[in-house]
Design a protein that fits this description.
about 45% helix, alpha+beta, about 90 residues, globular, single chain, 3 helices, Zincin-like
Length: about 90
């Protein structure tokens, strides 16, 4: 759990560095994910879901961003992101 929470915090900082507005709020049955409103990029995370699930949603949103490669990140976060980009 500690690793997951630490990765979520790192991913949240990475998202902010890339210009995303991350909102964590109760979304009912909705999983959350990335969206764009005007020119602003947002990621919605469902507070009713586990930390691991919120991390997965955030990582999927970040993995799709072409600017990701240029951003510094821990080896553990880089490995999780690479697993999303190249599953299997």
């Amino acid at each position: 759990m500690a690793d997951t929470l630490g990765l979520l915090q790192e991913a949240l900082q990475l998202a902010q560095d890339l210009g995303y507005r991350v909102r964590e709020e109760p979304l009912g049955d909705l999983p959350g994910g990335a969206c764009t409103v005007g020119d602003a990029r947002h990621v919605l995370l469902n507070l009713e879901h586990s930390v691991a699930n919120r991390l997965d949603v955030l990582l999927r949103a970040l993995a799709a961003d072409p600017r990701l490669a240029a951003e510094p990140k821990s080896r553990l976060l880089a490995a999780r992101l690479a697993a999303i980009v190249t599953p299997g």
